Amino acid sequence: MALTQKALAEIVTTLRATTGTVIDASGKIATVPADTARIDYSDGEAALLEEAASTNLVPYSAASIDNWLIDGATLTGLSLNALGTFPGLKIASDGQSYHRASAGNVNWTSGNTYAVSAWYKAGTSGKCRVVMRDSAGAIEVSVSGLVGALSLGSSAGGNVFGIVNTALGDGLYKVTFLFTPNTSTTSGRPAIGPHTVNVGEDVVALGIQVEAGTVPTSYIPTNGGAVTRARDICTVDVSDLGIAAGCTIAVKGRFDGLTQPAPGTNDRILSIDDGGFNNRLILASTNLGAILAQVRKDNILEASSNGPDGASTSNFAVAMRAGPNNFKTAINGVLSGQDSSVNYPAVTTMRIGASDASGGGTPPRLRVKSILIYPVLLSDAALAALGTV
């Protein structure tokens, strides 16, 4: 069978009311114009990036001597252009391990969870400390330690979990963690410091992001106030692919996080529909990370299959064969049973990472590496091969 292959960015119609950012092929942060598909290289492979709307609550995301505030430290402005974005701010201790610079005031709600992302460059201290400090008192949470290996420092001001350290090369690092404040104060200050009592030892702060939710998303630059990145809504017209009598769909990708919806709801990988909700082919992730495949006609569930919990938050591969009286899936190499009693719907539009034209079901962060659509019902062997990571 002859295949026509095109880059996703060439055929996708993207609606996003704002600019967005990606990690480009050189490993730098790049800005993508509004209404343009985002191709991201976060793990070194090209992937279509789909994210729900999110807001960076930090007023000054890039560390600078003009906008960050001193707290017992000596600051020196730099011109690094680190990651193609950050000028850099050298923060030297004046003799206390808590000395730092802060990025301004962030509003939060006690009991809600926030995702914190911080970028920094190793300095002479060999350490770093990232802090979320209650604005009303000396209560904070922090992660600290040797560069590239930050761990829980303090949880006095709330719960800290999900710490992830990433080495970015050239002495640059990123740390992300989740923070749930437990105080009645409604705001605080994110800050970065060298975590040392040795006068003059330093770390270089690059930038910081704080957003509501449990998933750190792509960098959202700010300069004076909170900024919101709109959701990605990506669609492809598949009406001319000849799939009226059935098709085989194969997708490879990864969820970098789920919305953790209630049981019975899900984050979409893709949905192929007729413009409404009644006739759809669906690939999605459940709240427990199980990959789900469904066929719906006239809003009746005709066929369904799902894989093991947790599969969607690692690199996944899923293939679905769907046609009249023919439904079978392969999820990460495991074939499902055959369903031979299926009414197949007429569908025309593929929505990537969403369940409808408004972007419903958009996950906080999904990277789609490939989508293959065959206008035929492939064999079990072919299905298993396509559904293998």
CATH homologous superfamily designation of the largest domain: Galactose-binding domain-like
Number of helices: 2
Query: DSSP strand (E) fraction?
Result: over 45%
CATH architecture verdict of the largest domain: Sandwich
Profile the largest sheet. Answer: 7 strands, antiparallel
The secondary structure category is mainly beta
CA-based gyration radius: 23 Å
CATH class call of the largest domain: Mainly Beta
Q: Report the uncertain regions.
A: none
| Helical residues, percent | under 10%
In spatial order, strands of the major sheet run 1-21-30-23-24-25-26
Task: Report on this structure.
By secondary structure, the chain is mostly beta strands. The chain has 2 domains: 10-18 and 232-386, Jelly Rolls (Sandwich); 54-229, Sandwich (Jelly Rolls). The protein is 3% helix and 47% strand. It has a 7-stranded antiparallel β-sheet with strand order 1-21-30-23-24-25-26, with no helix packed on it. The protein is elongated and about 75 Å long. The two termini are 22 Å apart.
